[in-house]
Amino acid sequence: MSLKTHIAQQFREIIWYSLDNGLISNATFIAERLYWYDTSNADAKHLFSLCLLRSGRYLTVLYMTEGVKHVGCAYMYAQACLQLGKCKQGIAALEAVSSQWTKSNNMYQHDDIYRCHLPDAAAIFCLLGHLSKKGGMVKKATDYYICSIKLNPFLWEAFDGLCSLGCNLHVKNIFKVTVGMQAERSRAQNIPVQANILQNVDPYISQNTDSEAHSTSHMVHTPDIFNSQKNNTPPFISHYPQSSFLNRLETTETPGSPTAQQIKSSEMIHNFLDHSVAGSSSFISPPNFLDTKIRLNQAKASPTTRSNIDKDFTKNSSPIDIPQRRSQRHLPNASKIASKLASTTSSIRDGRKSKSQMNRSKQEENIQVQEIQTLNTSQSCFQYGQKPNGQIVMSFAERIEAETCLLDLCRSIADGCHALAKYDGAKAIEYFKSLQPISQRNSVFVLSKIGRAYFEMVNYDEAEKYFYRLRKADPTRVEDMEIYSTVLWHLRKEVELSFLAHEILDLDRLAPQSWCIIANCFSLQREHDQALKCIRRAIQLNPNFAYAYTLEGHEYVANEEYERAQTSFRNAMRVDMRHYNAWYGIGMVFLRVGKNDLAMYHFRKAAEINPTNAVLLCCIGMIVERNKDFHEALQLYKKASELAPTSALARFKKAKILVCLRQYHSALKELLLLKDLAPDEANVHFLLGKLYKQLGDKPSAMKHLTIALNLDNRASHLIKEAIESIDEPEENLLGETGEVYKNLDREE
């Protein structure tokens, strides 16, 4: 059986109250009661599936909403598909109901009191982007993200998705006022929209002709945030209509038109008070209250030009007969105002009233219209005055100031994030450290990005400082802690790494990051089998965690299990094709087995993704060096040293190639710098001793050879031979020097 409207409304109010207050079980219970009254009602099904989705019951959501032609149900279905990896099904479900949401824009329909519970085009495009990205459809994901952020520049998720895909973006063209925002501003000022948009065209399209500026296809087809000139937009959005704000303004009837004359005041009141879509499976655009205001003003100015209103309107428009919208529970005087408006409108239409009565009626009407404007929180956020319960409504100037502030802040952070996504660490750090206000620089998000930037620049000391600050600011954070553990691994800080592992494991035993940190602990102690067990647990917890596969591959390399290492690295690439560490790992495997050409291919692919990584340049230089092209290798090592001045590997390789070219003094200069960077590395002191011996400085040679002997007993026979032959000339300075020393046998 179907419920009466006011009973169903009560159910919905309790459900939304429970959801807003985090009472998911209660919301699910009430939503299930509502659903089983009428299982064919799409709105009840949408509410029930929303509760189930928040409860993590994704399979149940799929079962309930599959094939339902309702934008809310399709959105829930797609969300569940995203969690379960059924990306194509989710995309198909949203495309099947595209006619219900392509004209929707709910950007100005959310505040502390009111919200539109159905998704709009920007949100759906963003979800389509997530589904396409997870399904490996990079081009479609890019198009969807562009559509999303063009409609709503505050959707950071869409921008983050574009960054993760490695897109070349013009950030300054993204976080700007959109066409829809400009249209809403124009409406708030009662300025014709067309003239305003001509002066403020879409920042994503080129300014060609007037007709092109208004072309709906340009809104999606010409995203010049990319360097390319083509954009193969999916078919169902190739003729995406203009913003719903602009659309409603263009189709609004003038107050004197026949259509406007036929509208009854009772209909206007009903549309104002009831914004729910109960009993309907189609997407309904919210009513435009600005039209109501215009018509009321017209009725006041020309009371004899409108058609007669039903004489029984006042009698039939009691608060009991008018279904309440969800947000009306916050407005205790709404019914009273509605009744006053009804009586006021009737008095306006009665031409037989006395002059004093007419004046009094006009004064009452002005008061009631102002009150109704205060109640309207769905269509225009640029109204003046004060909402019920003391909530202040932003003025037009305040709204512009607020939007500008948020757009500027997003743009500043986006500059840094985009630079980091392109692995330009120095530029990213510069952007993040110049953020205003200063409090934003100390936020957990920014600290994590700066730490990550230093990590990618192989500056582990600075990276540790920022991750330490991050831990102080948020001791409960698990995200990015696997990177912090790798930093500590490189710095050989066993105590700090063990402490971090214990803390993170206590915080969340089911987080894959926790087990990756423990794996790094075991790896640092050369217990690779134990490390592999921990990594397998991390993969079990999250099969899409690319970093875990990469760590697994490095542990297999340490155990010389190269085939398994390749499998692990390829799994990481399957999850994320831009995971350059996996390309590097496969290159190292081929380098170990002597397949230099294949190693070079994978190293170059990794360098294309991350062109500023000094380790990758060193790896390419190693292969070039093996091919006896010492001069080209030297150029690569020099570039690596410039990119990462604190990289011990780059300087060690550079010193070795200088020795090969018999540039001993230049090599000595590099080794002395390297000695300060890696004072406990035996290979550095061993090579320094042999170089001093070649230059005839026997005291210095003896000093460094002795230090090398104390640091590495395993190579004592080689070092003792060098000490015993201190008076003999050295024919091959690099004969026994290792290719890679212990601090650099793994680079993530």
UniProtKB/TrEMBL annotation:
A molecular-function term among this protein's GO annotations:
DNA binding
Q: Where in the cell is it found?
A: Nucleus
Q: Where are the TPR repeats?
A: 444-477, 512-545, 546-579, 580-613, 614-647, 682-715
Q: Which parts of the sequence are annotated with region: Disordered?
A: 300-365
> Which terms are listed as keywords in the entry?
Nucleus, Repeat, TPR repeat
Give the domain of life: Eukaryota
GO terms under cellular component:
anaphase-promoting complex; cytoplasm
Q: Report any one BP term from Gene Ontology.
A: metaphase/anaphase transition of mitotic cell cycle
Listed SUPFAM superfamilies: TPR-like
Amino acid composition bias (Polar residues), ranges on this chain: 356-365
InterPro entries in the record? TPR-like_helical_dom_sf, TPR_rpt
Q: What family does the entry list?
A: Belongs to the APC3/CDC27 family.
Name of protein = Uncharacterized protein
Q: Which species is this record about?
A: Pneumocystis jirovecii (strain RU7)
Q: What is the lineage of its organism?
A: Eukaryota, Fungi, Dikarya, Ascomycota, Taphrinomycotina
